[in-house]
Amino acid sequence: MKCRALVVPRRDGERVRRVLAESERLRTDLAIFADLAEVAIPLRDGAEVAPPPGGRVEVREFEPIPAAGPSDYRALLSGSAEDRARLPRSFDVIGDVVLIRIPAEWEARRAEIGAALLAFVPGARAVGADRGVHGDARTRTVERIAGGGGFATRHRENGIEFDVDPTVAYFSPRLAREHAEVAESVATGDRVLDLCCGVGPFSATIARDGRARSVTAVDANSAAIGLLRGTLARYPWGPRVTPLVARIEEFLPSAGPVERAVLNLPHEGIKYLPQVAPVVRPSGHIHYYEVTPRAEVRERTEAIVNALGSSGSWRVAESHVVHPFSPSADLRAFDLEHRSE
Length: 341
Description:
Elements: E1 2-9, H1 13-22, E2 33-34, E3 38-42, E4 56-61, H2 81-84, E5 92-94, E6 97-100, H3 110-120, E7 126-134, E8 139-147, E9 153-157, E10 160-164, H4 176-185, E11 191-195, H5 201-209, E12 214-219, H6 222-232, E13 241-245, H7 248-251, E14 258-264, H8 273-276, E15 280-293, H9 297-307, E16 313-326, E17 329-339
Parallel strand pairs: 6-7, 11-12, 11-14, 12-13, 14-15
Antiparallel strand pairs: 1-3, 1-4, 2-3, 5-6, 7-8, 9-10, 15-17, 16-17
Helix pairs in contact: 4-5
């Protein structure tokens, strides 16, 4: 939409915007345009302005600002507020795909729920009912309830665009901060193992940052490794990651020493800790993730340390909740440090 605009150097943009807003000369239904050098601020019809030094008034093309919609997709559903409150508030957005767990009592209305989410989530293409993660390959059973196309998509996280298909390989959009924080903890020259890597968000983020000497991403699911390879192929830092299709128990006996390992296998990863511990050098770390009952945090922490066995002295350097998993348990992160003797 064309409109008169006040164009000013970028450094002056916020100050000028505030002045125009306070004097009611700012047009608020159009989006301000900015590039590296200038900011174009839409003006109300008839607004009189004196351009500041370096500024000018001209006609520009602007994008309309969408009208504000509901803040909760459940508001788009029929029925009483009490009934709608029993639906889950949260859902996952992976690229242009939306996934939601639907309670049994709402199954008959899954198409209505899908339509509401398709309208509510900007850019959504397909909505799926998430029936859970199953099997050694950690794939999701997903039923499409709205939209079209398959569930393969590209998901942007921490500045990286990942190839993802939740029906063939594990990925959680709720771990973006973990992926970034683990990558930030990697020291220059670290060798890193990413075990049960899924589509490789830990590996890719670490490789992108460029401090690791090597990054090896391992998963038994060949589809997951295929998706990771597709992601890596798009980036100049992709060759820093070595993706391997292998089972943990088959890979670790021949693995060389590393300074850091990631093990994100929340329901059964503890059984692999005795095999992971010997390959981590003194002063190294294992970033371990587990679904932990809230009432058993102390007991589980002790069990995790004990599972590391006799390969050196270990301690939990830090532990925190990543996100709630159920009414009584959380996905928890454990930073396990191999102490020097």
